[in-house]
Amino acid sequence: MGAPNTARPPATRDALLPPAGTICRVTLEEVTVCFSAEEWALLEEWQRELHREVTAATAQLAMVLGWIHPVADVVFGWGWP
């Protein structure tokens, strides 16, 4: 007889989520998408513009909440050359 199978089944997406109503803290690095110069070049213009808009909105919210200071190289240096 072989050893018992103790392998876990793959986790589903819902199993990885916290219970409803749970407050989770995340960092800006966890929610920011950065592209290499090569990846950025492969994006279409509408995708680049969408990324700029979302990044700017995220940075503005972070500044309002006092998480980051409005330093141009931090705010406008995220993710695009």
How do the helices and strands line up, and which of them pair or pack?
Elements: H1 13-16, H2 28-31, H3 37-42, H4 45-64, H5 72-75
Could you explain how this protein is built, in words?
The chain has helices spanning 13-16, 28-31, 37-42, 45-64, 72-75. It has 81 residues and is mainly α. It has a domain at 24-75. The chain is flat. It starts with 12 loop residues before the first helix and ends in a 6-residue tail after the last helix. The model has no long low-confidence stretch (mean pLDDT 74). It comes from Coturnix japonica (Japanese quail).
Summarize the structure.
The protein has 81 residues and is mainly α. The chain is built from five helices and no strands.
Strand content: under 5%
Largest sheet: none
Structural class: mainly alpha
Number of strands: 0
* Percentage of residues in helical conformation: 40-55%
Query: What is the count of DSSP helices, taking H or I runs of 4+ residues?
Result: 5
Order of helices and strands: HHHHH
Round the mean pLDDT to the nearest integer and report it.
Answer: 74
| Cα radius of gyration in angstroms | 19 Å
Cα-to-Cα separation, first versus last residue: 60 Å
Shape: flat
Question: Which stretches of 5+ consecutive residues score pLDDT under 50?
Answer: none
Protein name: KRAB domain-containing protein
Organism: Coturnix japonica (Japanese quail)
Pfam family, one: KRAB
InterPro entries: KRAB (IPR001909), KRAB_dom_sf (IPR036051)
